[in-house]
Structures are given as C-alpha cells and as structure tokens.
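Internal QA ticket QA-208
Title: Verify multi-chain structure generation after dependency bump
Assignee: T.L.

Test input:
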Amino acid sequence: MAKKISILIVDDEESVRDSLYNWFIEDGFRVECAENAKRALTILESDQFDIILADIKMPGMDGLEMLRRIKSIKADSIVIVMTAFATVDTAVKALKDGAYDYVTKPFDPDDLTHLIRNATKQISLVEENETLKQKVTSLENVEDLIGKSEAMKGVLRQVESVAQTSSSVIITGESGTGKELVARAIHANSPRKFFPFVSVHCGALTESLLESELFGHEKGAFTGAMYNRKGRFEMADSGTIFLDEIATISTKMQVELLRVLESKTFMRVGGNKEISSDFRVVCATNKDLKSMVEKGTFREDLFYRLNVVNIQIPPLRERKDDIPLLVDYFINKYCTSMNKPPASIDTASLNRIQEFNFPGNIRELENMVERAIVVGNGRRITLKDLPLEKTFVSNTAESLDDFEKAFILQILNKYEWNISRTARALKVDRVTLYNKIKKYDLKLADQ
Amino acid sequence: MNLQAITLVSFGYFEKDILEETAKAVMEEYHCKVNMENGHLDLSEFYDSARRQYNGNLLLKQVDSMLFTESDKIIGIFNVDLFIPILTFIFGQAFLHGKTGIASLYRLNNERYGLASNEKLFRERTKKEVIHELGHTLGLIHCLNPTCVMRSSTYVADIDQKSQHLCRKCRSELQF
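Actual output:
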C-alpha cells in the first residue's frame, strides 16, 4: 500500500488553514495545521511531514525565516511558500533559501493539485533513490566476507575503520584468501561507494600495456591507438582503484605510480594535458613487499606511500573454524546459481575438509564445493563427491614407498611432529614410526 | 452502511425537473430516500466584494447549522460562484465524515466558458457534483479511478470525464 503523504499547513489566517485542510483531507492526505511559525517548529520537533505549505507573511517569525530553520533541521524537506502579495524579490529569495516552489494566493484548484502532485512525485523519487542506494550497497557489502574466527573478525574491524578514511591500503595474503573481496568491502563501506571501483590486475599486463591502462592514451600515441582512451586512474575519479599483484610492476612503473600517488595528477600516454583525479588506492599482493624493499626490487618510497594501512588476511589453514560457515555459504551460492534444491554436507566430509590444509585457500575450497555440487546427487555432499582423496595421494607418488613417505610426512606435519600422536593416528607403535622416519630420512624441514 | 434519508436543499431558483432528476440519481446511487427542500438564506452575508464571489467555507458552516427534515446527510445546492480563501473557485465542498456538503451549479454551465449551451451535459454535471460531495460526507476521499464519481475535478472537463457512479472500491468502502 502506498505511504500516506503528510502535509503541514502554516498560516496565520484560520480561513486559509481550514480551506487547505478540507481540500487536502478530501484528497486522502494526513494534514496538520499551525497558526504561526513557532507552533510549526514545535510540531516539527515531534512529527515529520512530507510537505510543508507555509505563508510568507506571518506575525512574529515570517515564512522565510521558518524556511531557513526547517532546512537547517532537515535539508531535504519540501517547503512550498505562499503569499498574497507576490514580488519577484521574495520569490527568488524563497527559492534561493531552498523552497520547493512559490505560489500566490488565491491559486487555481488545478495549480494546487499539480503542485502537490509534483511534490509527491519528488518525495517518491527521493525515497526510491534511497531504496536503490541501499540495494546497491547490499550487493557490495561485507556479506561476502565469511568468517567468525578471531582472525577474520580482526580483518573486518580493520575494514570498518579504514573504510571511512582515504588512506592507501595494502592487503596482503596468500593466493585465494579473498584480497579483492576485502578491497571491495573497503570501497563499499567508504564515502566513495557511489563512485567507481576500478580493478587493475597488474600482473596480467606488460609494462607498456599497464602504462596505457592506468594513464589512458591519446589518439595516435602508439600503433593501434585509434581513439583517445581514459585510463583507470581517470575512471576511478572520486572512487577507488584496486591494484592487484602490485609487486609485479616494473621499476619504471613504480616511479610513475609514486609520482601519481603524490600529486594525484598525470598525463595520458602521448598527451600533454595534465589530468587530475581524486582516487583512493588499495593494493594487494601475495609477496612480502618489505623483503622486496630490502632486496631492492621494490622502491622503498613507494612502499611507504602505499603501506599506510596494512591488512593481513590469514590463510584458511589458520582459521579452520570458518570452514563450516564457508562450506555452507558456497553450497547455498552454487545450489542457487545452478537452480538446485538446497544441499547439505555430511559430518564425515566436513571433518575431512577441516583436516585439509588448503594451499589454494578459499578459492580451492570454493572449487571443491562447486565440484561436489556438480558431481554429487544434489541433496547431500558425501566423501565420494570430494576430491580430497585424490589430492591426498597426488604428491607425485610413483611407488608404494613414495606414497608411504608422503603419507607419514603429512600425518607428522598434521600432529606437529608429535611422535606419540602420529603413531596412534597411523596405528603403529613409536619404534616403527621412528624406523620409518629414519628409512625415509624425514625431517621437520621437509614439510 | 445503512442510510435512511438524504436531503437536498436548494438555495435560490432552479428548474424543478433538474432537482428531481438529481434526487433520483442520488437515490439510485446511495439506495435511500431523498427529500427535497427549499432553503432560505441572505446570501449577501457571504458575499466577498473584493473577489465578487461567495465564501464557501462560511456557507458550508451555515448550512450545517440549519435545521431541516430529519435526515442523515444534507447537500445545499447554490447557483452562485463559490470560493474558499486559498482557491480561485470551488464547485462544492463537504465535511469529510460530516453531515453536510454544498454544491454550486454556477460553473457547471457551458455558457460560462463561452461554449454552446448543453442542457444534458449541465444536468449530468449537477448530478455528479452532488453525488461527489455526498461521497465526502460518507467518508470517501478522492479516488484515482478515472471513471469514479469521487475522482477529483478541478475543471468542468474533468467532471465530464467521470461517470456519475461510485467505483467498486469506493462502494466496498461504504459497504453497500
């Protein structure tokens, strides 16, 4: 059901208030009246109105002063001012102070109907805009960052606090931990959320291509540059630019990037006009940039420019508590996208998944669940649907001895080289295990 | 809704058959007895010389305070140009959920707009206006249905667009 529009009538003449009251009541609006500006402001303290229809000339505080006060309380209020003596000056003044419209008393019934209809349309557009904004936000909020572990809660807290600023951020973490999702969450929760999020995968582009991608180019700048093209920095104006695999960029590009980050201005390739853009930089890498700085392969000044805030995403093996949540999330995601009924996973499979180390992190887990839903019976994921067994013996085992060595090493690693627990798990005695360790020359460093 | 009687009170001179035709249409629409009476008022008290029109607010209050044959609803019918302080003119008005409404035939005539006289159209407009104001006294607000008699009309052309009947939604609100 449509929302009932509310109107506050402010006029010192009782007959005007009564007339408007009766007119609007017959149109089904919620109507209140105030005999002066002071009373109107008191009413507005405890109640909200969509439209305020106010006389300009009133004893005490006049309509224009009231308009200014209402606007200072609620800037998007729709205030229509009325007067019996219209002058261009007062009309312009009222409109400059934020009045929605200006009418001269008495007005034609049709004009009043149109005025209110337009104001109502404006209200519904503003509300629709708000709803759509909320929908857009919900598409890119942190719901995709799954996890209740302390490590993940820490990441979410950092995202929340850093999002409100415009500081540069470096997100570090192993491949597949969700660095881009964190970058998107930072953008989606920042004041820049209604502007573009521009993602650049630096590792996928050669130096010259990256330069053209980031800065854009002018027509004829190089062979094949048929048209002028905006660069990613330009596209990210007022928004966020996400530079993935930042560690892979060349020394020359590091210098260029540093200059752009410091001045927020650049020139297109082949251009001579300076372009300025207000962007926020979020970078990601799975490399240790600090050690690259020490080795001299990454510029120290760029590192410090980018590393204002560092968010470290823990690998999945360090937050195994999140695995059941992630599995549920991916099951729902893929069952929905494949139009399958909601599936579940049996306890044995979930336990086995939790024992796995996931070198490919969440991306590997996601692929594993997707595959299980594709190959499984669609109702319940069981051990046979999971590729874990294959991975387990896939350690290039070409002989039984190779397999035994790899298997023992894996169990040893799992129990952190606790011989008693490993022996119990392998169902052999400690002496046998020691003999096997000696036979295969297994060492802690072999992991 | 169980209406016993409606009274149409004419203030001024009207052709008898117009009022009878209107009373019949009201009876058919609201399924109740319709009385017709002549009202007596000194309209000069309600005349605004600056606007050369009659104050609809004051007239409505006056009719509401007068005593007529026992009935549930009363519509005062006038042949003068009505206004309310904020608007240039009105065709009529009523107390929402109240007992009384007023309607003026002054602006319903084609000749008022420089057009050829059309008696049939005039009578239809009269019926629609009276049924419309009665709807307000019964608690109906303006309806968005383009053919419903409760559709808001700010010009005579708008009155011509709608029918003289309540739409299904408005009828169901009245629980007829």
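Spot checks passed. Chain A has four domains: 6-136, 142-314, 317-392, 395-446.
Status: verified.
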